[in-house]
Amino acid sequence: MKTKLKTDSNLRKSLSNAEEEQLGERIRAIRTRKGFTQKQMADKSKLNINTLSMVEKGKTSPSIGTLQRLARALDVSIAEFFDSSESSTKIVFTPQHSRPESTCCHALIQNLAKGINNSTIEPFVISMEKDAGSGGRSLVHSGFEFAYCLSGEILYLIEEMEYPMSAGDSIVFPAQLPHRWENTYNGESQMIIVFTPVSQNPEQSKTHFENDQGA
Fold it and tell me: What letter would DSSP give residue 133?
């Protein structure tokens, strides 16, 4: 069964201006806290300074790809752009109907790790309108990227090779490979996406999944 957005398209559009302004204010606040000028920030993120200015003023909705560029340049998680809370925790339990959420980039973004006390993993549920995606430019960042299609159809392009995904399909790859993605379904699509750095223990899954040899 297709999962519906908690906010319908009309409500999302009516809230978009206020949310874009809040998003811009948080990006500007983090940039200022880090001591970067707009010119320095534009250079670090490889964004046009006029684009950055429009984002900070809430005059345009940045793509998820743009948010990733800004997050990397500021050395923060994308979640910090949507959550101004300073509290942190070691364990995050998120009930299905209580996911912290924001609207951006023609998508509903639900953070599954709000308040986590480090940024070594960033899991999100992303519900996208038709033709929404990561932005037109390919992305390159550290660590790995994992995506699982929950509904609809999503096209991943990695080094310009196409990987069409429908419900139940997944993909994981080194995020240093140029990549982008978009909703190719004639309607709404939803996926889980996880950003994570390289593990210091590449065989840690054995401690969780291997059979008890003594049984």
Answer: B
